[in-house]
Specification:
Blueprint lengths: L1 E5 L9 E4 L9 E11 L1 H8 L9 E2 L3 E9 L10 E5 L13 E5 L3 E3 L6 H4 L3 H14 L6 E5 L4 H12 L3 E5 L5 H6 L4 E3 L8 E6 L5 H4 L2 E9 L13 E4 L6 H12 L7 E6 L3 H10 L5 E5 L9
Parallel strand pairs: 9-10, 9-12, 10-11, 12-13, 13-14, 15-16
Antiparallel strand pairs: 1-2, 1-4, 3-5, 3-7, 3-16, 5-6, 6-8
Length: about 300
């Protein structure tokens, strides 16, 4: 099968598509024929060597949408099931940017029924990160939350999920993204420190660190999106960071929220697997609203 890998760290030009053996599922694993797989900033970090692994072949991709192709023993999934999954890990020989991927059975969920595979592939990593971050904040309905980077993938899901829980959301984003973030459920909008006010909690998807911490009331809460990188506590503010984990049961609930219209899946562009270096180059340019999605089978879906 074909898979996107890196063997030398650097820019988009170091990404290769190579031929490798089709992986086989072990017990409590399934093999998924990849219909679509999103490209995320973590993949750019892998490519640049931010997570180590020098001298190794490292695969890309955490998100996958596709069809169960084979199963190991002790799994409830069947060949032909349409699924989504989070393939967790930053330094692995193969990821989801391939024609097939093997994942643990409890990382898998039934795919949303109301969207195509290209859009479904944008759900696992970013939505799980958002919901697990919100769980750490422990906000009750009626409390206030500032989401930085609210127009991005994690931030956008966080706005929608928090609003769905009855939390009053202030979205921090660029001025030309105000209409977008309000459509996602933000009650208030700010493009900078002025107007952010004091809130019960901050979900810092833009990685502003201490700057974002200043907007939290005394005794409030701050959660970032880079593990072990949260700012130190001040004024009694509880600080921490989410480290996303694969959770098929939780992912199934998120897929249900897609089908209910609570969550919006945004695709910016699609790329064939052989054009993966072009996708990395586009990601590096910045300003992407929605996810870049690889389509190994070559079937290009409409963006939305």
């Amino acid at each position: 099968m074909r898979a996107a890998v890196v063997r030398t760290f650097g820019g988009p030009e170091v990404v290769e598509v190579v031929d490798v053996e089709v992986p086989e599922p072990a017990a409590r694993q399934v093999r998924i024929r990849v219909a679509a797989a999103a490209l995320n900033p973590v993949d750019a970090g892998v490519r640049a060597g931010a997570f180590g692994g020098a001298g190794k072949q490292i695969g890309f991709g955490w998100d996958v949408a596709g069809t169960v192709d084979a199963t190991g023993v002790a799994t409830a999934w069947s060949v032909g099931d349409e699924v989504v999954a989070l393939h967790y890990g930053v330094v692995q020989p193969l990821g989801t940017h391939a024609e097939y991927v093997v994942v643990d059975t409890d990382a898998v969920a039934k795919a949303p029924a109301t969207v195509d595979a290209v859009h479904a592939a944008t759900l696992p990593l970013n939505a799980l990160t958002a919901v697990q971050a919100l769980d750490l904040l422990e906000l009750a309905p009626g409390q206030s939350l500032l989401v930085t980077g609210a127009a991005g993938a994690v931030g956008g899901f966080a706005v929608q999920l928090a609003a769905h829980r009855g939390v009053a959301v202030t979205a921090l984003a660029r001025e030309d993204d105000e209409e977008l973030v309000r459509s996602l459920g933000a009650t208030h909008f700010t493009s900078g420190a002025d107007g952010a006010g004091s809130v019960d909690a901050v979900l810092d998807a833009a990685i502003l660190g201490e700057t974002a911490l200043e907007w939290v009331r005394d005794g409030g809460a701050y959660v970032g999106v880079i593990p072990q990188a949260a700012p130190a506590s001040v004024r009694g503010v509880r600080t921490g960071a989410v480290e996303v984990s694969a959770d098929g049961a939780r992912l199934a609930k998120l897929a249900g929220l897609v089908d209910e219209g609570v969550l919006t899946l945004r695709v910016a562009e699609t790329y064939a697997l052989e054009d993966v270096a072009k996708a990395h180059a586009r990601l590096a340019e910045g300003g992407v609203r929605g996810r870049l999605v690889l389509v190994p089978g070559g079937l290009r879906e409409e963006s939305a």
